Amino acid sequence: MSLHYNKTNGMQFMIADFFGALKARVYDDEVRKWIFVVGVDFIGKKLVNSKEGPPNFDQPKMTLSKLLEYGNMLVQEQENVERVQLADKYLKEAALGDANQDSINRGTFYGLFFYPEP
């Protein structure tokens, strides 16, 4: 998903991806409600060869407050992804990271589960 958060400008995003993600969240809530009503144990019976046919969902109401809530959740998720990527990049580029990789390649890395042969 292409969603970027800039603290000075607020939300900047690719509109189709962002609104598609918001809509998906709203419909996910409807599916969760349906599962709660039907019961997890009976989902298969309701979906496979059901005499009632496939489930029918009314178009959910998308209130401004709910959309803002989901928008902020998407921003937080994107920030978490960026933090993890930054941490991964830091660990890969750290001086010891390269030294450890060299040791691993030479077979001289004394890790928790690796013991070199005498």
TrEMBL record:
It is found in: Plastid, Chloroplast stroma. Its main location: plastid. The keyword Repressor does not apply. Keywords: ATP-binding, Nucleotide-binding. GO terms for molecular function: ATP binding; ribulose-1,5-bisphosphate carboxylase/oxygenase activator activity. The keyword Nucleotide-binding applies. Gene3D superfamilies: 1.10.8.1070. GO terms for cellular component: chloroplast stroma; thylakoid. Pfam families: RuBisCO_activase_AAA_helical. Residues 17-78 form the Ribulose bisphosphate carboxylase/oxygenase activase AAA helical domain. This is Ribulose bisphosphate carboxylase/oxygenase activase, chloroplastic. It comes from Glycine soja. The lineage of its organism: Eukaryota, Viridiplantae, Streptophyta, Embryophyta, Tracheophyta.
